[in-house]
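Researcher: Please translate sequence to structure tokens.
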Amino acid sequence: MFVTSPHVEEKIALIRDQLSRNIPDGVDLDLTQIGQPADDPESQWAATVALRVMATAGDAATLAGAEIGARLGSLYLQGIPGFFHDGAAGLHSRPKPRVDYWPGVLPQSALTHRAVIDGNRIVDAPIPPATAVTAQPTHPEPRDAPLAERVTRAPLGSVAYARSGDKGGNSNVGIWTPDPRVWPWLRRFLSTDEIRRLVPETKDIDIERHEFPEIRAVHFVFKGLLGTGGSSNLRVDQVGKAIGEYLRSRQVLIPDDLLGSTRRSGDHAVRQHLSGHATTGQTR
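Model: Translation complete:
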């Protein structure tokens, strides 16, 4: 559904109160505002934000009893000024299951190991007598980047590209540069503290940071940002696909000499970046 300014926050608060009134026990509501209205909108859509309303319950019968679709429909005559939803799409009010999962560890003795060769010959694969856990690589946090004489506030995406996705309940994002001259600045700039500032949602969760100097990349794992997994959390961007692009949109202070070298080849690089995202089906 949609909310049009002015007083967007107050209108959403009223919608939340109305939907929550006498709601059955066991039903939880999640309201997510998407976007901000312009200060002086020059079109109706510039004044409008989307509001995603999600209801969940432990079983379908309880959720159906909440009649969320009917509750939303009733707000036309007793709700906020300007209430409307996407009439062409309709309201999705039929319960559907959410799939939750969790990782577990089994003793190898509980599993049958075998290899099937050419579709018919079966070879037993005995349990190895010893196993070991490979430790994650660790990289020290970078020291503060040296101050450049001339800097410009510009999107991080002016000098770097990104790719993000899901690993269970964790979100991972890699940020890299094709320009060797940008790499020393990028790796120093992208500290864990700086990432927490750039992505406020990560301020209270554990973060792993790794460097890949051969491909001029810094990689972060945001532990638990996606709840228990992309199939069960209530984020609009369920599997964190757009976190990398959000990072690229953040305005940061970039040395002017690095901006100059990047801008000369920027159009070609952006086309490569977009086409790579369009043709890549797997998270990298």
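Researcher: Any highlights?
Model: Confidence is low (pLDDT under 50) at residues 263-268, 278-284.
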